Amino acid sequence: MKRTELFFSIFLVPLDFTALLLAAFVAQKIRFLDVVEGFRPAVYTTTTENLAFYACVVAAVWIFLFALAGLYSRRITDSFYNQFLRIVAACSAGLVFVIFVVFLHRDFFSSRFIILAAWFLAICFVTVLRIAIRKVQHLLFRYGIAARRVAIIGTSGTAEELVAQIKLHVDSGYRVVVALPPTEVSLLTLRELVNKRAIDELIYADARASSEERALFLEFSESNHLTFRYTPDLLHSAVRRPVVNVEIGIPLVEVPVTKIEGWGRIFKRAIDVVAGVCGLLFFSPLFVFVAVGIFFETGRPIIYVSERVGRGGLFTFYKFRSMYLKDSTGEQYGGAAAQQLHDELVATSGSRGGPVPKVANDPRVTPFGVWLRRLSLDELPQFWNILKGDMSLIGPRPHLPWEVSRYEKHHRKVLAIKPGLTGLSQVSGRSDLDFEEEVRLDRYYIEEWSPFLDMLIVLRTISAIFRSRRAL
């Protein structure tokens, strides 16, 4: 989701809340009109203050239902008809909630007319509001503002028709930046186009392409954080949970990379900020204890600093040093000699192959470092990475550049989100997992993310740390 789309989604929350309050107050005004009173006299009255309180409570619940219905996560390029159906469904679910509460607590609110009128008016007001916002966005699109910048790859007539339809529907939210046949596109040139021309979305429209070519462009989109769409005749086994888009006359299908987009990303970042602050404050006594232990065992530096690869590229990664200084890899530590020792240990004592090898009973780790690693205390400085935004509390583990350079295509999916301090693979076996199994678990997390899954991983992380403590 583009930042402008995210802005409008956030902006819709207070607007929807206001529309729901307005629906409640207008419904009350209508109920006490003379014409309505003459038809059916009112037997229930309430003060404006009470109505305001009830309306605020109900509106808050309805906003939550709107979010569950996806009304704050849809792009402007999606069908408004589908959005209207979501509005009706969410408001109807809210109506059921109100009826249920009134059934249990008759004194809460008992005007059936106001309840039903407010439900109908809420649908009308929210729909009109969405139409107005949509018109504003369409006006911006006509001037080339906030549109999704698209690269179209294809040689078929479908690709040509797609370009023509996007140019015809200037308010669709799309803007074709480049259209090229697959034979003229290499991943290198495409990456340059993405970087130089700020591409948001890649649309693949070539029915004659092989499945390998399609998979190649899909993998490229995932690793470069682009939305990937294609025409329906290109449906293949790599596509999961397609979302159809029909706003520009030609149906398109989106391949969802992760649910951590839009409001999901906002929610996850908010949790990360809280976790970063709380982690640094809560564990500050341990920071001092660990720093003193490392200093008296092997001296300075206390913190091991290296470069890791995250969602946005390279970032500075922090952890407590758990190896002897001369054996720590990196130019500022053991240098070439340490790297050579690492390679020898991987060859002779490697407990796991693949792009990210592990060394069993690593002799480079200090006695105090063994204890730190067993309790995962060496990872505590990464709360600073989380607070900075380089990492998340939960996600795939970050790897070194030379390790990432050895990834196979399907491994690069783990770069679609920020790396994490803990994650599904870490709580499912930690260093005992085969790398392919680790990637499989990380891909599952990326595709199936939910707040509940994050909560479950946090609880399992705490459990794993306490199991390690008992093992000492």
UniProtKB/TrEMBL annotation:
UniProt keyword annotations, A-Z: Membrane, Transferase, Transmembrane, Transmembrane helix
Domain Bacterial sugar transferase: 268-466
Molecular-function annotations in GO: phosphotransferase activity, for other substituted phosphate groups
Transmembrane regions listed in the UniProt entry: 51-72, 84-105, 111-133, 273-296
Pfam families hit by this protein: Bac_transf, CoA_binding_3
Signal peptide bounds: none
Membrane disposition: Multi-pass membrane protein
Keyword Transferase: yes
Localization, UniProt: Membrane
Record-level GO cellular component terms: membrane
PANTHER family named in the record: COLANIC BIOSYNTHESIS UDP-GLUCOSE LIPID CARRIER TRANSFERASE (PTHR30576), SLL5057 PROTEIN (PTHR30576:SF10)
Family indicated by similarity: Belongs to the bacterial sugar transferase family.
Protein name: Bacterial sugar transferase domain-containing protein
Organism of origin: Candidatus Uhrbacteria bacterium CG10_big_fil_rev_8_21_14_0_10_48_11
